[in-house]
Write a sequence for this structure.
């Protein structure tokens, strides 16, 4: 499996788990710390995905220039 596919799979699964935990918390426990933790996890996953996309674009640009 290519690295970029693995990165997106990790972020998608992580985001899905965080959203499920957040939604369950909203309807049942209503604990603010869980909502804040889910928000922090989602923000870190978005930042990770953006960084990986930038790395991929840079690699593609370098490959295009060298060919």
């Amino acid at each position: 499996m290519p690295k970029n596919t693995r990165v997106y799979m990790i972020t998608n699964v992580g985001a899905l788990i965080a959203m499920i935990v957040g939604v369950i918390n909203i309807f049942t426990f209503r604990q603010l710390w869980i909502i804040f933790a889910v928000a922090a996890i989602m923000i870190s996953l978005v930042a990770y995905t953006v960084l990986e996309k930038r790395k991929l674009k840079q690699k593609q640009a370098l490959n295009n220039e060298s060919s």
About this structure: The two ends are 24 Å apart (CA to CA). The mean pLDDT is 87. The chain has two helices and no strands.
